[in-house]
Amino acid sequence: MRIEICKSKIHKVTVTEANLQYVGSITIDEDLMEAANLIENEKVQVVNINNGERLETYVIKGERGSGIICLNGPAARKAAVGDVVIIISYASMDFEEAKTFKPSIIFPDVETNRLV
């Protein structure tokens, strides 16, 4: 049996940009991506703490050290600059493997979106 579990989580970052005219996705600072074990084009769920919206999209690598969290395309309608979001990715794995798997969960500074 295979189950889906939390693989990576960026807990509470602030949306710095919303670009409606972009094709789609979420741009994330490369430092945050590495710390959370996320890769470019990986599917993520974005949960908006301010308004309760949830959406699925894919990751675009943002400038390292910039603190960028930018919702692009239609996702830009789901959050405003200044909203706080949680970004989660999941992995499908064997039930027994999942029992011992440890997700990569990070808690950046919510004001600066930088690692602490």
Strand arrangement in the largest pleated sheet: 2-6-3-5-4-7-1-8
Q: Poorly predicted ranges (pLDDT <50, ≥5 residues)? A: none
Q: Distance between termini?
A: 38 Å
Bin the strand percentage.
over 45%
- Global morphology: globular
If you average the pLDDT, what whole number results? 97
Backbone CA Rg: 14 Å
Give the second-level CATH assignment, the architecture.
Answer: Beta Barrel
The CATH class is identified as Mainly Beta
The beta-strand count equals: 8
Number of domains: 1
- The number of helical segments is 2
Pattern of helices and strands = EEEHEEEEHE
Structural class: mainly beta
The percentage helix is: 10-25%
Largest sheet: 8 strands, mixed
Classify the fold: give the CATH topology.
Answer: Barwin-like endoglucanases
Question: Which key terms come to mind for this protein?
Answer:
116 residues, 2 helices, Barwin-like endoglucanases, 47% strand, 10% helix, mainly beta, 8-stranded mixed beta sheet
Short recap of the structure:
Helix content is 10%, strand content 47%.
Describe this structure in words.
With 116 residues, this protein is mostly beta strands. The longest helix is centred in the N-terminal third of the chain and has 6 residues, at 30-35. The protein has helices spanning 30-35, 95-100; strands at residues 2-14, 17-19, 25-29, 43-48, 54-62, 69-72, 84-94, 104-106. 30% of the residues are buried.
